[in-house]
Amino acid sequence: MLNETVAKLLNAQINQEFYSAYLYLHFANFYVEQDLNGFANWYQVQAQEERDHAMLMTQYMQNNDTKVTYEAVAKPDAKLTGHIDALKAGLAHEQYVTGLIHKIYEAAYEIRDFRTMQFLDWFVKEQGEEEKNATDLIKKMKLFGSDAKGLYLLDQELAARTYVAPSLVL
Ligand code: FEO
Model-level pTM greater than 0.70? Predict the structure, then answer.
């Protein structure tokens, strides 16, 4: 069984990961309304990845004989008007999630829970990748998004993203 504090934080993180999925579906909806289906696709794939994160944490807790409780998922609260708004909200959200993952890591570190630290290593790296992806999207939008042709090509690029199962196997 996992330590009580670590288990509580991991259980809360499962909810956050489902919230992330929900938030990204909210972004995808917004882009469908804007007729930017490539952006919508990008966030639909992102939402699938977030669900994977929640399920990996669920499986990790269950593998360690620790009870998982699924709580209510909050309504996505990001206000979206301009094309760049979701991208900026996405980066801010990933930075917030990175902080949460680090807090769980700290709790595991304090009690020398090496197993959980090793499990979380994948998420620490993943957060680095997600922050970079979110930052790159903002940069591209700033460079090309104000021109109709540029926006069209960017949307085409994001339409090509496909879902890839997580590299972490438990
Ligand atoms: Fe589950 Fe976007 O990190």
Answer: yes
